[in-house]
Amino acid sequence: MMSRRRPISWSLVVLFSLIPFQNCGQQMMKPTSSASSSAQCKAILKAEAVAGTSASAYNCDNFNNYQCERRIFSPNVADMSHSIKECVGGGETCVDVEVNQFSTAHALSAKEDAALFEPGGSYNREEVKCHHKYFYSGIAVFEGESDNLEQALAAAMKACDHAGEAP
Q1: Span 71-96, pLDDT tens digits
Q2: Is residue 69 a contact partner of residue 96, using CB atoms and an 8 Å limit?
Q3: Using a CB cutoff of 8 Å and minimum separation of 24, what contacts does 25-34 make?
Q4: pLDDT in tens, 113-159
């Protein structure tokens, strides 16, 4: 009796470990948030998206093909969102930026550690994420992240410039 349970148990383990990988390969509907996809699925989809193409197909050097999000966490701002056009490199390179501000004043009044409110601390920092507007299965294929716009945009452009290259 014990010998029959072991193959059944192994079969179930294999079946449930294959389900996530099978879902990556299936045609997916555009998700409401790319954050819901696993890192493995994103990597597979990104590789699939650029297979057999070159960077020139994406017009990587055209700044109008990029969009960025700036997330500001500070006790000195109000919760709000707005869109702006931000320029880098002496004002020659401009890109659309969605700015999302998150007030951390509640943590300040809760007497959190003062070091967390120093520039770069958990409650007083900026995050910038840029991506090329080319999406594949709801996932931005070329992305870059940094604590400033210029570096995040440069990282997204570099990812685009390397499209189709072997990792």
Answers
A1: 999 999 999 999 999 998 888 889 99
A2: no
A3: 27/137, 28/137, 28/138, 29/138, 30/135, 30/137, 30/138, 31/138, 34/138, 34/139, 34/140
A4: 889 999 999 999 999 999 999 999 889 999 999 999 999 999 999 99
Question: Cα(138)–Cα(86) distance, rounded to whole angstroms?
Answer: 25
Residue 19 CA to residue 158 CA, distance in Å, equals 33
Half-sphere exposure of 12 (CA within 13 A, CB side): 5
Under 8 Å between Cβ of 98 and 70: yes
Is-contact 146 128, C-beta < 8 A?
Answer: yes
pLDDT above 60 (res 25): no
